[in-house]
Every structure is written in structure tokens, then in C-alpha cells.
């Protein structure tokens, strides 16, 4: 679960940077 959350956070950050 923690890994998934970390991935989600990372993805969110990447998405934010992309946008």
C-alpha cells in the first residue's frame, strides 16, 4: 500500500509539472 501511495504521489507531482 505505501508503495502504491508513493507512486500515486510521484505521478501527481509529475502530472502537475507536466501541466
Any key phrases for this structure?
single chain; mainly alpha; 0% strand
What structural class do helix, strand and pairing data support?
mainly alpha
Overall body shape: rod-shaped
Low-confidence stretches: none
Number of helices: 1
Main beta sheet, described? none
Please report the distance between the alpha carbons of the first and last residues.
Answer: 27 Å
Percentage of residues in helical conformation: over 70%
What integer value in Å does the Rg equal? 8 Å
Average predicted confidence as pLDDT: 71
Order of helices and strands: H
Number of strands: 0
Fraction of residues in β-strands: under 5%
Describe this structure in words.
89% of the residues lie in helices and 0% in strands. The longest helix is centred in the middle third of the chain and has 17 residues, at 2-18. The protein is built from 1 helix and no strands. With 19 residues, the chain is an all-alpha fold. The mean pLDDT is 71.
